[in-house]
């Protein structure tokens, strides 16, 4: 079974997101947590990722569970707008932090304008509260950003 640990900033448009991705990658490489060059150990997109390296054992809570020798064992870095939700049984439920009303259907419908970057914000149809889409309440973990780190 393949597991993933995904880190996503709770902001749609991260300033200098590509530079921040390179900084984190350089930090991980320097500590030998991941390899310096990508290989085909990824799961998504083009299958490329930065393979797990021996230094990962020093930082893992359970180093015996690390996926050394597995086909998917690396860090994938995403620097385009992406929606991160559970892959199974995601209920598309969301609420407004201001009025506490259920607004999942209109919020997820609004992703058609969020995805191409026309806006980072969503406006509650119930009370008019506006914020970055990540500022709304979700019953299941999810994130919306142009920066993401997927550890396989």
Q: How big a fraction of the residues is strand? A: 25-35%
Q: How would a crystallographer describe the biggest sheet?
A: 5 strands, antiparallel
SS class: alpha+beta
What is the average per-residue confidence, as pLDDT, rounded to a whole number?
Answer: 93
Subunit organisation of the chains: single chain
SSE string, helix = H, strand = E? EHEEHEEEHHEEEEE
Which regions contain 5 or more consecutive residues with pLDDT less than 50? none
Question: Which shape, going by the Cα principal axes?
Answer: elongated
Radius of gyration: 17 Å
Number of alpha- plus pi-helical segments? 4
Number of strands: 11
Amount of helix? 10-25%
Give the neighbour order of strands across the main sheet.
1-11-4-3-2
Distance between the termini: 11 Å
What does this structure look like?
The chain is built from four helices and eleven strands, in the order βαββαβββααβββββ. It is of the alpha+beta class and 152 residues long. A hairpin with a 6-residue loop joins strand 7 and strand 8 (130-132). The longest helix is centred in the N-terminal third of the chain and has 14 residues, at 17-30. The protein is elongated, with a radius of gyration of 17 Å.
Features:
152 residues, alpha+beta, five-stranded antiparallel sheet, two-stranded antiparallel ribbon, elongated
In short:
With 152 residues, this protein is α+β, with helices and mostly antiparallel strands. It has helices spanning 17-30, 56-59, 104-109, 111-114, and strands spanning 5-7, 34-39, 49-52, 74-78, 82-84, 94-95, 121-123, 130-132, 137-138, 143-145, 148-151.
């Amino acid at each position: 079974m393949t597991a993933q640990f995904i880190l996503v900033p709770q902001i749609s448009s991260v300033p200098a997101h590509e530079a921040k991705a390179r900084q984190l990658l350089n930090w991980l490489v320097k500590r030998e947590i991941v390899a310096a060059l990508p290989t085909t150990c990824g799961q998504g997109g083009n299958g490329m990722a930065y393979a797990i390296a021996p230094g990962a054992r020093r930082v893992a809570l359970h180093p015996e569970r690390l996926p050394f020798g597995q086909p998917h064992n690396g860090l994938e870095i995403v620097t385009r707008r992406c929606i991160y939700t559970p892959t199974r049984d995601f209920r598309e439920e969301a609420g407004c932090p201001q009025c506490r009303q259920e607004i999942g259907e209109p919020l997820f419908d609004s992703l058609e304008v969020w995805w191409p970057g026309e806006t980072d914000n969503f406006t509650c149809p119930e009370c008019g509260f506006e914020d970055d889409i990540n500022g709304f309440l979700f019953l299941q973990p999810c994130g919306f950003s142009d920066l993401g780190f997927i550890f396989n």
